[in-house]
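In this section we walk through a basic example: taking a raw amino acid sequence and producing a predicted 3D structure, encoded as discrete structure tokens. The instruction is simple. Fold the sequence below.
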Amino acid sequence: MGRMKDIAIDLISYEADELEIDEIVDLFATLIRSGMAWTLQGHYGRTAEAFISEGIVSPEGDVLVELIPA
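The resulting token sequence is shown next.
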């Protein structure tokens, strides 16, 4: 339950636009790894696909580039 609670908190923070870019990438990497990116509302799957297409996150959910927060 602990990790699910962390993901829920991260999703709420993401929706509230409170995360830095590196935190967003980490969140989407987690969602891709867990498969949740494909079961949540469409925005999450589309954003996950964009991160994969851009080479930021692998299809397996590994972060491929280090982004510096603005």
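Looking at the output, two observations stand out. The chain has one domain: 2-53. The first helix runs from residue 2 to 15. In the next section we compare this with other chains.
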